[in-house]
Amino acid sequence: MARLADYFVVVGYDFDKRASSESQGQILQRFPEKDWEDNPFPQGIELFCQPSGWQLLSERKPPTFFVAVLTDINSERHYCACFTFWESVGDLQTQKSQPREAAEDEDHGIVQPTQLFAPKSLVLVSRLDHTEVFRNCLSLMYTVHIDHLNVQLETLIGNLLTCIIPIAGGSQRTITLGAGDRQVIQTPVNDSLPVSGCSVALLFRQLGILNVLYLFCAALTEQKILFLSSSYQRLSDACRGILSILFPLKYSFTYVPILPGKLLEVLSSPTPFIIGVNSFFRSETQELLDVIIADLDGGTVTVPECVHVSLLPEPLLHQTKTVLSMVMDPELQYADYAFPPTLIQSSALKIQDKEIRAVFLWLFAQLFQGYRWCLHIIRIHPEPVIRFHKAAFLGQGALTEDDFLNKVLDGMAFAGFVSERGPPYRATDLFDDLMANDMERIKMEEGHPCKILRHIKELAEHLFKNENPYPSVAMHKIQKPTEGSHLRIHQKIFPFLDEVAVQFRIDHAASSQKSAPPVVKPEKKCLVLSGPPIAAMVDRNGSALANSARRLEVVRNCITYIFENKLLEAKKLLPAVLRALKSRVARQCLTQELNLHSQQNRAVLDDQQFDYIVRMMNCTLQDCSHMDEHGIAAALLPLVTVFCRKLGAGITQFAYSCVQEHSVWMNMQFWEAMFYSDVQNHIRALYIEENESCDQDYGEQMPGGKSALEIAAVQRRLWPTLCKEKQLELVQKEESTVFSQAIHYANRMSYLLLPLDTSKNRLLNRSGLGDVESVSNSYVTNSIAGSMAESYDTESGFEDAEGSDVANTVVRFINRFVDKVCTESGVTNEHLKTLHTNIPDIVQMHIETLEAVHRESKRLPPIQKPKLLRPSLLVGEELVMDGLRVNLMSDGRDEATGGVSGGLALLPAEGAIFLTTYRLIFKGTPTDPLVGEQVVTRSFPIASLTKEKKISFHAQMEQYFGEGLQLRSCTFQLMKIAFDEEVSSDLVELFRKHLHKLRYPQQVQGTFAFTVGQSAKMLVEPKSKEKNQSLKTLSKNLMKNAKKTIGRQYVTRKKYTPPTWETRSGAQFATDEDDISISEEPDQSSLTLSSTIKSSDRQTMSNVVERACCRDYQRLGLGTLSNSLTRSKNEPFRISTVNRMYTVCRSYPGLLIVPQSIQDPTIQRISRCYRHNRFPVVCWRNSRTKAVLLRSAGLHGKGVAGFFKSPNAPTAGPSQTDSTSLEQEKYLQAIIKSMPSYSEATGRNTLSGFSSAQMSSSGKWGSIRVSNRMSSYNPDIGTRLAGKDIPPPQANGGPSETHFLRQQRAYLYIIGDKSQLKGTKQDPFQQWEVVPIEVFDVRQVKNSFKKLMKACVPSSVSNESNMTFYRCLEDSEWLCLLHKVLQVSVLVVELLDSSSSVMVSLEEGWDITTQVVSLVQLLSDPYYRTMEGFRLLVEKEWLSFGHRFSHRGAQTLASQSSGFTPVFLQFLDCVHQIHLQFPMEFEFSQYYLKFLAYHYVSNRFRTFLLDCDCERIELGVMYEEKGERKNQTVYKSVWDYIDKLNKKTPIFFNYMFSPEDGEVLKPYSHISNLKLWDFYTYETLSEGPSYDWELVHGRYEQPDESDRQDTASQKSQRKIVWPCYDNRSKVEPDAITKLLQELQSLEVELGLVSEKWKDTWDKIKATQRTETKLESRHSLFSPLLLSSNLIHQRRTQGLYLQESVGSSINLLESENIATSTPSGSMASGRRSTSTLYSQFQTSESEHRSLEGVLYKKGAILKPWKPRWFVLDKTKHQLRYYESKIDKDCKGVIDLAEVESVNQGNPSMGAPKNIDEKAFFDLKTTKRFYNFCAPDSHNAQLWIDSIQSCLSDA
């Protein structure tokens, strides 16, 4: 029984605080005035009466009603029913407030309205939730007041406050307040079931099924939920609905259905909540980043991005959605029926509400199925203490990885569920009955929606009857106010109530209740049935094969062999057993077998047996998680303290000392679950008969015996009947049982926590366990102690001085465990103190035992570890640290572990890590015995290391691996190494120190490219003697003197003639006769400088001219150097030496191409406007259109202001800025004048020659200098660069030519950064056009590359579905960056190809600018697609023009903080993309690009060191002595190394190279056309990276020769190629490479001088070309060639090989015709593809003794013609064909008719320039033949062969 209402409160507007900033309410009266003893008055009611704030309104609103919920400090909920109406502000209040209002009017000018209405609230406070009863009671009081009924309000209030009703039981209670009213209150049958009314159904109708499921899961996983609605009552109903569907769980966090506006800061609390807020405050909820917002009015649920809501596990989620949709919309399943049932209708709202709740009840029954079988009862008396075994529950249901269920079981709601429903003897409800009796039915109904729905309706009926047990309810009688009564103009103020009268009625009722006998209803308690246990689940990681009886039999046999001492048989089975133990069933079988043998007194083993048993235990534990969800570690725990071996007299080593390195022993929850399980078994033993307690098993239930919960239920039922003494005895026995088990577990924990060698603390990584309560440890360490120490000290707030002591840390860990379990188990304080006293003694005693064991164990013969394999080193590469024994662990790539792709497990591998001056090398063998013979190698250059961090590993089967390193390289390699126990921590730190020192040297001279060949000591000491000392000193003096004279160079202008160049060696320069125009007018200071160091200056300038820049300028015809040094006025450009001393721009080359008319002083002034003085210079010219490509950096801020300055803007100083801008205009105009299209179009050379009419009609822009904005750039170009195509599109995604290009283009386009050109505008009188584009910066490249590395080389396997490889690749945005670069490059190519010059002026001019101009030249000029041309392109654009290789590659300590930014790699990737699309246009292969990508970061060569030519000259490394390049063993230049390698092997050559003259490439640039470069993902574990050719080449040479000798005896030539292990290009070479190798091998075997592969290839191609020319006339009318006039873009090349005697290679080109981008070039002389198969002859090819081309003289008056002759000894014929591939014979000479064959003489019409001895004649009985061979040698060969045939005949 309880009071219907505890308090009645009248709350009104507080006029006294009206003047304050915020109005407030005040409690006018409350009844009773004194608090009830059992229920104090809740504070803050006035806030909840008006949640939106107390305000005066100008019009009267209708009365409102809602119920708010307040929660007190004891978590008790108070339901506050608020009835609010509005009253006119009376004269009294107005008079009281007049002086204050007058003051306000004077101060603030506020005009008060004529009439105001103030709210007043009648509030009922109750602990019961009877919303409708409260509404009726308060409405009645308002009716009595507003309609002036003849009833005292005090009587109503007194009766209400004294009304007592039952809480539950299903009874009805009729009440009356004394105003002629009557109400019937219906109590629920069972108060444990929530009463929901219609709230759940309304919630689903407002939000929908999926949204409510999201809220349901969010509430269970403790997320923050906020409801929004304009209705307060709907907020209350929605919150009530959420709580109702959570049953049987109870929400235990903040619950405020209606939150006042003044308390909105509660929404920022860190704890979970369910809160409702009026939509009025919606704007204030927008900044909540971790709150799920449900808008009831709009029907939406918004989940923030940072919040992850774990959903129900499948298939439960799908089933729940299906059943809910059937309940909400029953017509859905019949919607498609032709004849739907007629009597289908939705249930009434109240019934539907219960049906929905029944669905969630059914859902929870499936989620918690079998939960009672995982309960541990650890105390029965005086009160039950129950704990839930979470790991066992998840393991039995195979739900360990389910995120939702893990969160639910860890939540506070489930903890309350266990406390409330765990006791086995209590009152039960519907959920208990469902779990006990209906689980079998639920299992059978699975997959049958109709049956499920029938079950749901039955449950809904139970829920409905709980709220409405009686079908008919007596009619309510409540008087309601007259309609429209609240709108009356004159209404009485709610009266001040008589407190004495109300209190009198309360006191009178209280006295009568005291005299009445108490109503005691006995609570019905019974045994709670556990229901069926969790069904056995199939092992998710295993398969039918893994769990087969055969495998289990292998495990049993192996264990039997071990214990029978048949160790040889056991050794054979051991690998199979270790593999079988991956299965859970096999692990359980192992524990069962070992338990059987331990019971047979076979626990003492010899050394070999002990090793095998320990190894199997370790393997079993290794595959167990830290949770031990399958109970494997729990089953092994007693066994590890049983099995042992004798080490000496009285010294025994137990198995626990060898199985400590596993995560499960570090998990506090595992120890707690084990402790509770054992305590439960011993408690059970107290209450069963003696004979049952003798044979205890560690199961939940003994055969034929009662479970612990059943015994506990019986004991709880008997407890009230026992006498006090008996009760006390049982309590003491239980407490003693727990105490004894605590001592036992203190010993067990010390066994498994203390390492065998306690003298050293091997706690290498303490971060793995931060909090011992955590169950999500990703890494674990050797011993637990250190981790425990850290968390203990962190909590205590100070660092323990003895924190490194193993004993102390273990004691602290055990103390924490004992404190927790003993406190929960009710152990007395005296016993707890005893435990804390004994634990240090237990640990110390065990340490002493371990010391003796450790001492004796050292005397055992050591375990034989594999021999360390030594790596091969390069010439000059030296070891810095000898091999450290490590294990190479697997990472996120599963190819090497035999994962998804299958294959053998190459990793983990055991071996050693070697640190050399150049590389980091691992070499070892796999730990898997099935692949133990293979060698695993993984290495990368030290200079490519990007990240190094410490990690820890799980225990392995034999050795201890605790400390490890993860090393990531920008060559897309990752090493996760775990150090062996023999490697000390000091050695590891020394290794890391050396690694860091080698990775980041103090100066660039400390890199391997400079120190190669020096000793390791010299490496550490940078003051070693430098080579080229004289050259370096000279270079430094040059730079020093240049800096001194730069300020005086151009003071006096005088004609000057530099020294001549006659002293240069002719061998050095092939272009001495070329004319180079140099414009230079320096002053006397320059003369002095030159005369001072005349010879060295000549040498320096000579070297400058020799550089790639100058060679390319001469090739392009951009300028020449001549002896006369006269200026050729006809040339538009000249080579300027203004920067020869690198004083104008330090990062530019010494020689630059500038317009002829621009003087050097002008250049110096112009350069100051650009970043780093990188002014515009010409770098390439189109040979056809003569358009030029320029490059520069972006403008300075001041440069932009000056360059685009308005003439009307005031200037602070003289017109220096204007003059600079004018000179810039002249500079650009000079470039435009150099173009033939400009002269042809205008005939003028001045800017003024263009009239305004001409300019406006052509759309060109005017002067940039005289404008202040530039917003209207070419829309077509801007759209193109933005990636927005204009229809109709081209094949590569760009707009068509007619739409993209204007009718009259600008002469010069300037590609600039949009952010730099912001706020500028074009002028209509300009011949150039500025195109602002948005470019990415280097930070984006850096971040993108990091993500790309993690995608291609992940550090660990990700189980998240949204972290797949392609998702990570997409997130990296690497291909997006490539797309942008290619898109801009293709645009520039099109502009250049259409006769417009382009200037690329982006960022600093050395990153994106370099990428774009390089790609433009590569696409436009076929020369750069050759090996020589590509080298020259890289040397010119990347090296000479100052790409910051050292800075971007973080090559030194100074640049370490900047990080690695792969700008050059991005360029190579772009080239790779173009290469894929145009495979016939490149002379070099894909391997060539990979080689450069690897070695540009390897620091093996000096080529890519330093940031510019100036720095290279200063260090004296730019020009090597000529003698150094001869016979060098250590190559300093990557180009020299490539040249040497290219002569030996065709690895860099592209056999498909067949370029089209003048072909301009326009590749597709869309992301869908781009491919991921296999350089990022390919790896060969057999040899490591293949880019250090000597290592791989030397390794493969000898085996090939030895294998060749055995080929005859081998039956099969098949080879197994392993992914990620074998080098596929070597194991399966392409056909041409294989033939060239075989040819070379045959020449070596025959003792002939081996011909270079290139010469062989060139001969084959020359022969093929000759034949093609000779036969072209016969194929001119091929249908395919007739169609070759069509536009084509991509071509493919067919390669056909004929392997036979006298095999030859035919290189046949075919065309793939496509209507694509116009290409200007046309194919001619190509063969038809129909002839491709003609070369494959039938049996004739087997009889060709000699064949070749011979000229044959025709009949009389017919010319000599080339024919393909075949001498056939078998058929005795000399046949001839039109061509080699012709299969139709044109004629046959029968050798039987030949009379003679002799030397001949040339006759009329014979081929010219042929040796006379090449002619020979053949006479037959019918005719005389005249032949001509290519040379005399071939003629003699034919004569001898024919004569041989004649003699044989």
How does this model look, in words?
Helix content is 39%, strand content 14%. Helix 5 packs across helix 7 (232-245), helix 17 (549-563) runs antiparallel to helix 18 (567-580) and helix 25 (724-753) packs parallel to helix 28. The chain starts with a strand and ends with a helix.
For the secondary structure, the number of strands is: 44
Spans of 5+ residues with little confidence (pLDDT < 50)? 94-112, 536-547, 690-704, 762-804, 955-960, 1016-1098, 1122-1127, 1198-1216, 1243-1276, 1282-1303, 1595-1611, 1675-1742
Percent of residues in beta strands: 5-15%
Alpha-carbon Rg, integer: 47 Å
Give a concise summary.
The protein is α+β, with helices and mostly antiparallel strands and 1849 residues long. It is built from 58 helices and 44 strands. It has a seven-stranded antiparallel sheet. Strands 41-40-39-38-44-43-42 form a seven-stranded antiparallel sheet, covered by helices on one side. A five-stranded antiparallel sheet has the order 3-2-6-5-4.
Name its key features.
alpha+beta; globular; 1849 residues; single chain; 44 strands
